[in-house]
Structures are given as structure tokens and as C-alpha cells.
């Protein structure tokens, strides 16, 4: 089942609200014994009125492929315009307001409006627009018309793109020891995405998207001298306005994403005693999915009547035992109780009925996670940390009902050296569990030797090193490198081994007060080995997958020109990704090409007309190329309807002139 608001998201929301954050600010200091009668702030000023900046931009796009809109902010070819800004208002009686905007008028932008009285209440209004592009002018031999996919001799042309528009309203009120918040948002998602079906030959088509997600959050919190608590509710409702799709000769050949909703109530709190801090939460929820099912022979249910009840809990403690030694730990509990409908369903063997019946098996999942850690300051600037994590998972009606993950890690931090700081981390992890069983209730159609990678026994060893080097005060170099290896020694069919390693380097240089620059580089390699069988027995073929990613970049800026009025800058980025897959059976057969690269550059000139007004001229360039052998032309494969060759190969340009006015 597909739920737009899952347990992990809601659990994070439950502990990330403003009322639950530990407050160690100056405002929370105990000043009861301090005599402040003779204190006088001679430089304090009460700034009222408006401040900030407003920017208006206009320019031109030279775009031949809408994919460039992901980098340029809009895929429109020709004239473009946008408004941005950040304006604050401060009244004399404590009333304040803020307006923020970023690239309004483009395909990707946002606006934020808030106002209220400081320390008492605040209203907010938000608008976000996000559009992602996959391909433009996609060709299809199917026309979508009110739920009907109609084959046609003429070609249907459309864009594979998704647009999200979200509007949100919020209210916060707080006074003395309590506070409340209420938030509502609605997101509309439209566009097309790629989909496929078999009826009777493979058909690829553009699936229309038209859905709405509504979310409502509310809560109340209380605080004391050394405690905080909050009771909150989070709710989400997903509505899909696209129904099941049909072909002229077959009804409901493609099922729509079902409507669903999720609700959670959370109680969380924090308490400290001296140098010991405790926090916890308990969250209970329910996810519901009750759309009608597509009716077919052997289906006894009219609707799914899906329901999953969730229970989540956490308790964490950290304590400074001495000025050098700190200990901490946490316990997490999560339960997913699937109470969805069960019934006897007729079994299919490919396209024919077998005459056998089998009951669907709703899966329950229960997780317990335990963590303990310690930190010891050996000397000033030298710290040693160690920890142990344990995760126990139980799944009903699964190939493996119990898995146990153990993880031991160690960190060593050095901050005492004059010009060099470094962090070293090493970890060893192991997964084991109950017997792996393939039975009639789980996956009798699978090879008995198959081990799913997330359930199989696994040993992981990883190490990571981070170094910061500042040889002189105008230069800084950051380097990090990492290596991790996973071994599945007991797996005969499935993923048998994988390794992931790479590095990142970042150099920042400030030559003088006017000239600075940066250079960065990063690479990552992911290699994996997989064993398979065509004979439903021991392994008779192997696959080696090698993925490589690289990112390179550089930039510089020069200010202080023309009597400190002109600043020039340039930025450049190169990225490349390559995936190679070799399948070895009697002979070695490589898969088709799958790689992409991107060059992007930006140059700008920022000129200050006076203390309040400035002009900025920006030029942006993108060169993008990718190739995926799985993308083929409309008529390249007899009997198959495809979306055509939707790989990319283009150059895109953007010129933008903006005017900025400073409010003082």
C-alpha cells in the first residue's frame, strides 16, 4: 500500500517541533543572583521600520530540451522574468512581519509571509512551486482521453514532467509556560510520468498525474524550569483524481494509485537533572486505504479495507559523569500491525487459473533498537568515542521472520594540533537471524537458494577519515575519504558482495580582501557482485556491476573594482556518472551503455549604483548528455510500443539582468 505520510516522517516531525528543542540559549540562563541595576547598554538601538532587499530580474533562455529547466529554474524558451526579495518590518510595540520570495514567476520558486507580535503569536502563509523535468516532446502511440488509452496511427506528443504547487497556513501562539501551533497545507501534483503494461504485448505510455495531498498538524506544549512536554497531532489525506485506465478492448488494465490517509498522535517530553538530560516520545497512529479494487475473476473483495496501526516509542538519556566522561543511550520501539482484509484468492499461473486458492497474508513488523555510547576527553583537543547499536526485527509471513543487526563503532577526534584537525571513524557490523525459509505462505515461486539482501546474513566493515588543514590563515583544505565492504558469505543466489569507497576534497583560498576562490573534487565507486540461476537451481550466471561518479568544480570572485562598486565572479561544475554491467554465463555479455555527464558554468558582474541600488548581469550555461540503452525509438522493437528515445544531448544558455533595491 502507498501512504504519503509514513511512520518515520511523522516520528521525525514529532520531535522536531520548536517546543521540543533543547534550549541552551543565553535567555535560559539563571540570572537570579546577578545584580543588573548598574548595567547600561550604550550601543543598543531599537531598530524599527522596514529593512531588507527586493530584486526584479528579466532575461532570456535558449533551451532546446526541457531537461535544462532542472538547472535553470524554468524550461521556458525565450523571455523570462522573476521577483525575489527578503523584507522585514519591526514595529515599535513589538509587532513584526517578514516577506520572502525567491524566483517567483519561474517554474521553481517560493514565497513566505509571516507576521505577529514577538514572543506571543505569529501567522504564516507559504507558497512553493517545484517542477521536475524528465523529457520533452515524448512520442507515444497511445492517446489518453478520460480514462481510455486509445491506440492511434498518429503520434501523441507530451512532456514527461511533474509540477507540485503547495500552499500552507500556520499559526503559533505562546505565552509564559505554554504554547500552541496549528498548520495546514495542500499540495497539488500534476503532469505525466512514464508507465508500462502488458496487454498482450509490452506498452509504454505517459501516465497522467493529478493528485492532492492535504496535511493538518496541531499541538500544544508546556515548559518549566527544567522540563518540556508536547502533545501533537499529524494527519495526511491523499486523493488521486486519475481513475483506473482502460484500453478499447479491455477495461481497467492499469490500476490507479489508491486514495489513503494517515493519522498520528504524539506525546513527547524532555527533562534534565543537573548534567543528565532525558527525552522521550510515544506515537500512536493509523493508516487507512479503502479504495475499490479492480474486479476480475477470482477476486472476492470489492474494496481493500486496508488498515495498519502503528505504535512508536523512544527514550534517550545522556549524562556528563565527569568533565571528561560522558555516556548516553537510547531505546526505540516500532510496531506495524497490519489489520487489512484477508480472503481466499484464486491462484494464477502466468495467465491461466490453477484452480487453487490461497489467502493473502498481511505482514506485521516489530522493531527494537538499542544504542549505547560513551565519550572521553583524553586531553584538551583529544576525544575518544565508542558505541554499540543493536536492532532486532520480527516480520510475520516472511522468508526470514527474525533479523538481528549488531554494529560496533569507534571515533577518534583530534583538535589540538596547530594547523591540522582530523576525525577517524571505524565500524564493524553483522547481521544474523532465524532460519531462512521459503514456504507456501511467502515465496514458493522463488528459488530456495535465493537470499534477499536486506534479510540475508551480512558482515560489514567500514572506515572513514576527515582532515582539515589550514597551513596559513588565507587557505583551508578539507579532505575526507571512506571505504565500506559488505560480504554475504552464506548467499548462493542473490547479492554476494559489494564495496563502496570514495573521497571528497575542498580547497578555499582568500588571496586578499578582494580576491577569493575555491576548488573541489569528489569521486565514488560502488561495485557489487550478484549470482543467479536460470535453471531454478544452483548459480549458473554471475553479474558484476560497477558504478562510478565524479564531481569537479572551481570558482573565484574579484571585488573592489571601479572604486569598490564592481564584483566579478565565475563558477564551474563538471559531473559524470558511468554504470557498467557484465553478465557471465557461458560467455561474458556486457549490458548496453548507461552514462551521463554535465558541464555547467556561471559568470556574473555585480555593480553597485549607490548604497541602496545594484545591478547584476548573470550568464549561465549547461552542457548535458546521457545515454541509456533501455531507451529505444518508437518502432525499433517490433510489437512493442515505447516512449521513443528520451535520452538527452543539448546545450542551454540563460542571460539574466536583475535590479536590487536595499531597504534601510
UniProtKB/TrEMBL annotation:
Coiled coil: none annotated. Residues 1-21 form the signal peptide. Pfam families: MtrB_PioB (PF11854). The keyword Zinc does not apply. Keywords: Cell outer membrane, Membrane, Signal. It comes from the Bacteria. One of its GO terms (cellular component) is cell outer membrane. It is found in: Cell outer membrane. NCBIfam families: OMP_MtrB_PioB. This is MtrB/PioB family decaheme-associated outer membrane protein. The lineage of its organism: Bacteria, Pseudomonadati, Pseudomonadota, Gammaproteobacteria, Alteromonadales.
Amino acid at each position: 500500500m502507498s501512504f504519503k505520510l509514513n511512520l518515520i516522517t511523522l516520528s521525525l516531525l514529532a520531535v522536531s517541533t520548536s517546543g521540543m528543542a533543547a534550549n541552551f540559549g543565553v535567555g535560559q540562563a539563571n540570572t537570579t543572583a546577578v545584580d543588573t541595576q548598574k548595567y547600561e547598554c550604550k550601543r543598543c538601538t531599537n531598530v524599527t521600520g522596514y529593512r531588507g532587499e527586493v530584486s526584479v530580474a528579466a532575461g532570456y533562455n535558449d533551451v532546446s530540451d526541457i531537461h535544462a529547466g532542472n538547472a535553470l529554474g524554468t524550461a521556458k524558451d525565450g523571455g523570462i522574468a522573476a521577483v525575489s526579495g527578503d523584507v522585514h518590518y519591526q514595529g515599535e510595540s513589538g509587532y513584526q512581519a517578514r516577506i520572502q520570495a525567491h524566483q517567483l514567476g519561474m517554474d521553481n520558486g517560493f514565497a513566505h509571509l509571516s507576521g505577529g507580535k514577538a514572543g506571543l503569536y505569529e501567522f504564516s502563509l507559504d507558497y512553493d512551486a517545484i517542477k521536475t523535468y524528465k523529457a520533452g516532446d515524448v512520442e507515444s502511440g497511445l492517446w489518453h482521453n478520460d480514462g481510455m488509452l486509445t491506440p492511434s496511427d498518429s503520434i501523441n506528443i507530451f512532456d514527461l514532467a511533474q509540477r507540485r504547487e503547495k500552499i500552507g497556513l500556520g499559526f503559533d501562539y505562546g505565552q509564559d509556560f505554554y504554547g500552541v501551533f496549528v498548520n495546514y497545507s495542500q499540495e497539488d501534483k500534476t503532469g505525466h510520468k512514464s508507465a508500462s503494461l502488458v496487454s498482450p504485448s509490452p506498452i509504454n505510455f505517459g501516465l497522467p498525474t493529478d493528485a492532492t495531498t492535504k496535511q493538518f498538524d496541531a499541538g500544544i506544549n508546556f515548559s518549566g524550569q527544567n522540563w518540556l512536554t508536547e502533545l501533537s497531532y499529524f494527519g495526511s489525506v491523499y486523493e488521486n483524481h486519475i481513475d483506473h485506465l482502460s484500453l478499447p478492448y479491455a477495461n481497467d488494465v492499469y490500476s490507479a494509485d489508491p486514495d489513503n490517509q494517515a493519522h498520528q498522535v504524539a506525546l513527547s517530553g524532555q527533562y534534565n537533572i543537573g548534567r543528565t538530560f532525558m527525552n522521550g516520545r510515544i506515537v500512536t497512529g493509523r493508516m487507512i486505504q479503502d479504495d475499490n479494487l479492480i474486479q476480475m475473476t477470482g477476486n472476492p473483495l470489492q474494496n481493500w479495507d486496508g488498515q495498519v496501526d502503528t505504535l512508536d516509542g523512544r527514550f534517550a538519556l545522556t549524562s556528563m559523569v565527569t568533565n571528561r566522561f560522558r555516556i548516553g543511550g537510547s531505546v526505540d520501539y516500532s510496531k506495524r500491525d497490519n489489520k487489512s482484509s484477508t480472503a481466499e484468492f484464486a491462484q494464477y499461473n502466468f495467465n491461466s487459473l490453477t484452480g487453487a486458492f490461497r489467502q493473502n497474508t498481511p505482514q506485521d513488523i516489530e522493531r527494537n533498537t538499542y544504542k549505547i555510547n560513551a565519550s572521553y576527553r583524553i586531553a584538551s583537543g583529544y576525544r575518544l568515542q565508542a558505541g554499540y547499536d543493536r536492532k532486532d526485527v520480527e516480520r510475520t509471513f516472511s522468508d526470514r521472520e527474525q533479523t538481528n543487526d549488531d554494529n560496533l563503532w569507534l571515533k577518534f577526534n583530534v583538535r589540538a594540533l596547530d594547523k591540522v584537525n582530523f576525525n577517524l571513524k571505524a565500524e564493524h557490523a553483522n547481521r544474523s537471524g532465524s532460519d531462512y525459509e521459503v514456504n507456501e505462505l511467502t515465496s514458493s515461486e522463488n528459488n530456495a537458494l535465493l537470499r534477499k539482501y536486506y534479510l540475508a546474513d551480512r558482515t560489514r566493515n567500514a572506515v572513514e577519515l576527515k582532515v582539515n588543514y589550514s597551513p596559513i590563515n588565507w587557505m583551508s583544505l578539507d579532505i575526507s575519504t571512506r571505504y565500506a565492504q559488505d560480504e554475504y558469505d552464506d548467499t548462493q543466489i542473490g547479492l554476494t558482495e559489494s564495496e563502496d569507497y570514495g573521497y571528497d576534497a575542498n580547497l578555499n583560498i582568500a588571496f586578499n580582501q578582494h580576491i577569493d576562490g575555491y576548488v573541489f573534487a569528489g569521486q565514488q565507486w560502488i561495485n557489487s557482485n550478484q549470482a543467479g540461476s536460470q535453471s531454478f537451481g544452483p548459480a549458473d550466471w554471475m553479474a558484476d556491476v560497477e558504478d562510478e561518479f565524479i564531481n569537479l568544480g572551481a570558482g573565484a570572485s574579484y571585488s573592489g573594482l571601479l572604486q569598490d562598486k564592481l564584483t566579478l565572479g565565475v563558477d564551474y561544475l563538471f559531473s559524470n556518472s558511468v554504470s557498467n554491467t557484465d553478465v557471465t554465463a557461458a560467455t561474458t555479455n556486457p549490458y548496453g551503455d548507461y552514462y551521463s555527464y554535465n558541464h555547467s558554468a556561471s559568470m556574473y558582474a555585480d555593480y553597485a549604483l549607490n548604497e541602496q541600488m545594484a545591478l547584476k548581469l548573470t550568464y549561465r550555461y549547461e552542457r548535458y548528455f546521457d545515454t541509456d540503452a533501455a531507451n529505444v525509438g518508437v518502432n525499433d522493437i517490433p510489437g512493442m510500443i515505447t516512449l521513443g528515445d528520451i535520452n538527452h544531448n543539448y546545450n542551454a544558455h540563460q542571460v539574466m539582468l536583475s535590479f536590487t533595491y536595499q531597504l534601510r
